[in-house]
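G., before I forget:
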Amino acid sequence: MAGLKTRLQDIKQRRELLLITSGSLIIAALAATHLFSFAAAGRWLYAAAAIAAGWDIALRAWNSLRNRHVSIELLVTIAASGALLIGEVWEAAAVTFLFILGAYLEARTLTRTRKVLEELLDLAPMQAVVIRDGRELEVAPYEVAVGETVLVRPGGRIPVDGEVIDGRSVVDESAITGEPMPEVKTAGAAVFAGTINQEGLLWVRATGVGADTTLARIIRRVEEAQEEKAPTQRFIERFARWYTPFIIALSAVAFLITRNVELALTLLVIGCPGALVISTPVSVVAGIGRAAQRGILIKGGEYLENSGKISIVALDKTGTITRGRPQVTEIIALQNVPQLASAVVPAGETAASLPDQAAGVLYWAAIAEGGSEHPLARAVRLAAEEQFGPLPPADEFETFTGKGVRAVYGNVEILVGNQEFLQEMEVTITPELQEHLRELRSRGHTAVAVALNGQPGGVLGISDPLRESSPSMIRKLREAGVRRIVMLTGDDELTARAIAAEAGIEEVRASLLPEEKLDAIRELQRSGQVVAMVGDGINDAPALAAADIGIAMGAGGTDVAIETADIALIADDLHKIPEAIRISRATMRNIRQNVVVALATVTLLLAGVLLGEVHMAGGMLVHEASVLLVILNGMRLLRI
Amino acid sequence: MKTILRSQELSCPSCVAKIEKALKNLDGVQEATVHFNTGRIEVEHDPERVKAETLVAAVKSAGYEARVSAF
């Protein structure tokens, strides 16, 4: 008996028990009535079935009533009781059984659409081992304080965001960064909560805990997107709120007019527009969940809707179409430049050995670029440091955004930049220099001129190669229905066009300053088209914000991008872009299908009941079937 | 204090109002919001007057299994 009691306490098990009981009684009743012609027994069995399923429904109806809420359970209870009273025992049994069956199936299938969120939540471990006062203590992950040290054993999940202070291991970060290959982590490395520590022990100093971790941010973002009410949904909910009282009133009126109790009761049965209210949320939850599974975090219903309508895609060049890791690939020294032969250095410093003139070009350029954070500057510095080791700092240093840098080291004034910059600084532009610059650019390199003491010294070719996936991604975008693809870049026209041609992009806007990228987006939007912009979440922020849909790539681990981009792509994978468009379009189609099914069902049921064609059992059956149909259709999105 | 509950069982949107009212009727609960789409339930309450277990029991009486969650 104790076992039965616990069985009844658990909601899911109680539902199953009642289903089996009620169902068996109904089968018995059917057998009695039709097989054995024992109609009287059949009637009692039907009544028993109705009570077996009905008392639970009545209980919940009562609980809600105590909270002053008229629930669908109340309507079903009244309908079933009324049916019993007028002797319609079969109707009472069928209605109660179908209602519980419906609830059972709905719960099971809806759970499936929510599973993506569940899977993300499951990434968060239940336990953390924190080191306090030299002892290892097991606590809940959110009880760890920022700054405390956490111990992660091999095979365990990292419970906090943090920095490795000791130990060495390999960590699978695919859930957070989209990187399929596990990363080596040693002292100084950053780690994320929810990732799997594979081999060694790690001691981690917590920098982010509980809701303040990248995992929590991803989860919250998926949740917010799933919970956000698209305009269609809000409209449907307003409709649903007056539908139920309307049905109750209609039922009362119908009874008063026709004195047909069964008609009035049947109306009560269809009092909840279940399928209609679920039609949008189930698709939104499934669609956003599916996208999240594929590493695409969509901000919400509005962006889902708009993604389906994208006709123009603007792509930033550096880091999006290209790898974003520029490298010095060519160094050309011009003829007869004295300073290149010997590096004149300030007194007291040792002269660097310059093996040849080309090395000289690199050396001087790197010193000049010492203070710049620009990716091109870093490429130059890296190449120089590889060859010469650490470089001396310049004595003077000045940056000219979009143009170049000027530095002084010893008695040498160094200018590094594009041709316009050198001209502005009154350097003689020789035909030789011009030709080298032009030639490099025509091959897709960024060409940078180096001038020493007012004379052109050499040219550096910096190459930021195309991603291998770029051409096929561009093709897929066109296949997805995007009509115009535009490349935006601060790089110069010739270089940009070379890269664009390789990728298959025809429209190029080059030499853009950051504000000009924003203007370009606005101009594209002027034709009323829906414009998406793909870029790096941090540097392209203004343009991304201006676009109808801002898509940030490689957002995994970058909290800013996760929070602000309309669509954040966790991995650095270009193919996610057409995929995001595809999933959005499929979700919108799904919503439309569901709304049609739901509306058709509501109208047909209402008409059917009022015309006397549909009775209680039939009404409940059609109602539950339509809800299930809508949910199952929504679940299809989980597999696209 | 805000407690977050999560329920996997919300199947009919009408249960949103049901659960919210069940929670708000508890003494010490200021606000309760049920997000049907994700099964997340946010409850603003006075921890002295009503504990998390009571919140879970209230949701259960409305007919749904729920558990407390950290975020």
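The interface with chain A takes residues 6, 8-14, 17-18, 21-22, 25, 35-40, 60-65, 69-71 of chain B (CB under 8 Å). The domain at 2-69 of chain B is CATH 3.30.70.100 (Alpha-Beta Plaits).

More on Monday.
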